[in-house]
Amino acid sequence: MSRIAYVAGQYLPHRRAAVHIEDRGYQFADGVYEVIAVVAGKLVDEEPHIVRLKRSVGELRIPLPMGEAALKIVMREVIRRNGVDNGIVYLQVTRGAAPREHAFPKSVKPTLVVTAKRTKPPDPKYGRDGIAVITIPDIRWERCDIKSVALVANVLGKQQAREAGAYEAWQVDRDGMVTEGTSTNAWIVTMDGAVVTRAADNAILSGVTRLAVLDIIRAEGLQFSERPFTVTEALAAREAFLTSTTADLLSVVSIDGKPVANGKPGLLSEKLRSAYLAHTGMVV
Amino acid sequence: MSRIAYVAGQYLPHRRAAVHIEDRGYQFADGVYEVIAVVAGKLVDEEPHIVRLKRSVGELRIPLPMGEAALKIVMREVIRRNGVDNGIVYLQVTRGAAPREHAFPKSVKPTLVVTAKRTKPPDPKYGRDGIAVITIPDIRWERCDIKSVALVANVLGKQQAREAGAYEAWQVDRDGMVTEGTSTNAWIVTMDGAVVTRAADNAILSGVTRLAVLDIIRAEGLQFSERPFTVTEALAAREAFLTSTTADLLSVVSIDGKPVANGKPGLLSEKLRSAYLAHTGMVV
Fold first, then answer.
1. Fewest beta carbons within 10 Å, which of B195, B239, B264, B267?
2. Interchain proximity A115–B148, CB inside 8 Å
3. pTM score, whole prediction
4. pLDDT category, B121, cuts 50, 70, 90?
5. Do the Cβ atoms of A20 and B20 come within 8 Å?
């Protein structure tokens, strides 16, 4: 089955799915995106993804290229045409193609691209053994709450993690506080059992998996606090973990080469991971 | 004459010049660019543009998709095919197209796009009467020395300027210092006649026009200092101006609606403007 992509009104073979060189997504990173998991043919947490998409385009004042109902139909059609049972949908909206000029063009039609592909869940060993993170300065712009495609700093950070043999890089702001990973949210469990993650301010993306895990935490009646934490606090924590659509929830067992607690996935992280996987419909 | 663009090895009609939806320039802003002026068929300051391009791709660890000599030939061919006597060449290099993943793909070929078009010089009234700027917080990332396509903050800033009836927005860092405009460098002339512009640190782009104007200043034996300045200092200055490849050198006669000096272009700015236009080969 050859892959099919939706590009600005057309379903095209993936290999020739293209956008104009003057698409503002290409020349200005003037666009936003979403990645939504598909489990057993169903979109996971579709609603909060759509809510966030609408917020992101709203902040950049890009009109949504089609109504929400139509968008949902396109996503399902792309899933169907690509035979995706388990995988992801990638959706990108840019301000559209126009002669290059920084300010918004007078008349321009936003570009919508939707792709879907089968993916495997994260390597089971990550779930079993946990993963390592490094810490790096957060050099990104001040509106990381917008899920924009201006991701070059995230790219450099993720690459630095890979070269250090780590799964992720936790970014640290000027005040010494962890903001988030380059494509994941960051969490700790303190010695007195409280789950801590940064509040969704302008420095982080309000992760959809983050929201789902917060819901689980609330439903379970666990102690939690939305506040920033330092690397030192994370290293002194009982547990640490990260969340994202594609990583699900993974225990962080070392930071900058130093173990978190005994260097093994914590009990609460494992419990939350199981609960989150159940929420998505994944068989644990 | 229909426009022609160079895209990854091919000369294509502009209207169907496209890049793959998984080009990392589109999905991650993982690329850089240059804009070079063409005056009377000649590339203005080609060498410093190439030097800066090499530095930008070097910082992102993107290999240059062809040798310097070949690149110069492509630029000339694009100029020729588009019949550009006076205008600009736009050149973009991205890491290339690969299945979406933040870290650098294992094997990927960088994408080179080169376009050229005829442009008019800035509206003569800007040269005659000067222009207005507003000031806004600098919310960009911390590596503005890299000429990356991650320009969404610049887009928002320029749009804010337009809506305020201004030509440009000067961005101000957390210390209250002007960094630069959204697509121009910022300058003042102090009451004792010293020309001041921020040193080329990580917060600004080392503008090629900025370098050319610094050369003129040196050649003329004028007093100058490369240091940051505040908005208050700019408002108390004798003159202010901005520089860029497409704006050339324009006097800034008001900041946030308040006049700089008597609200008219200053003598030194006008002198530097003439010298810069002569340097580019433009008839003044």
1. B267
2. no
3. 0.97
4. confident
5. no
Q: Are B94 and B31 in contact (CB under 8 A)?
A: yes
pLDDT band at B1 (very low <50, low <70, confident <90, very high): low
Contact A21 B17 (CB under 8 A): yes
Are the beta carbons of A255 and A234 closer than 8 angstroms?
A: yes
A-chain residues near B242 (CB < 8 A):
none
How many other C-beta atoms are found inside a 10 Å radius of the C-beta of residue A249?
26
pLDDT tens digit string along B194-232? 999 999 999 999 999 999 999 999 999 999 999 999 999
Which of B21, B25, B30 has the CB atom closest to A5's CB atom?
A: B21
Residues ≥6 apart with Cβ < 8 Å to B216:
B272, B275, B276, B279
Encoded tokens for A218? 């609330």
Burial of B218 (0-12, 13-18, 19+ CB in 10 A): exposed
A147 an active-site residue? yes
Please check the confidence at residue A86 and state whether its pLDDT lies above 90.
Answer: yes
Spatial separation of the C-alpha atoms in residues A97 and A25, rounded to whole Å: 8
Interface residue of A27, A114, A119 to substitute, partner B, most B CBs within 10 Å:
A27
Judged by CB atoms closer than 8 Å, whether chains meet at B158 and A30 is answered as no
Q: Token pair of A6, please?
A: 């939706």
Query: Which of these is catalytic: A54, A147, A158, A271?
Result: A147
What ipTM was assigned to the predicted interfaces of this complex? Answer: 0.97
* Whole-number Cα distances in Å, A68 to A9, A49, A79: 15, 11, 17
- Residue A132 φ/ψ, nearest 5 degrees: -105, 145
Pairing between strand B131-137 and B168-172? parallel
Which residues, including other chains, have CB under 8 Å from residue A28's CB and lie 6 or more apart? Answer: A95, A102, B149, B151, B152, B154, B155
Nearest to B61 by CA among A20, A158, A21: A158
